[in-house]
Prior knowledge:
By secondary structure, this protein is an alpha+beta fold. It is built from seven helices and nine strands.
Amino acid sequence: MFPYIRSSETYDSAAILRRREVSPLRFEPLTIADIPAIRPYLNAAPSRTCDFTIGGLLMWADYFNYTYAIYDGTLFVKGVTENDVTRTAFSLPSGKPALADIEREQVMRVLDYYDAYGFTGVVLKVPGRGIVAFSVGEVIGDTLYVHIEKMAHDVAGAGETVNKLFASCMLGTVPHLRYINREEAVGDPGLRNAKESYHPCMLLGKYNVMM
């Protein structure tokens, strides 16, 4: 019924025990009485599938053996797979911490240990304002992977300028570059439109393989 990640069947018993000891999630059966608790998370979910609706969950709660847990502002739903009810499946978490908050933490981590990552990057400065945009990435083969690109949104053209600046600088130092991978839009329509405005030569497909 919903996008899922199967629990691994290859963990040894010690690893399973460790996960049980540290997991803060306490799953409870999903019932009608839980609607007020889960509705805010479903209303905030970016997915348009019916699996992230009250009806999509409650109408099938018995069949899929849905249970749920709310931890640190995030809703987790556990059930079984559609084709094999003996296999555990998890829905995509919904709610906080927001992806933007998680990304911010990871960006700061990269900057704190910038030398260890071996990345390269550029900054864009304007007089009287200082840094208004920066990009960070790495080169593998003939491709520049832009992992981070941040800008002050109140400075017109900062994003476009730092993007062009990074590409030009890298072409000057790595002449064999042929592609720039600007990575995914993580479900953000605005970010996706911005990335597509650069007219990419291709969109790479990504798939999950269930073992």
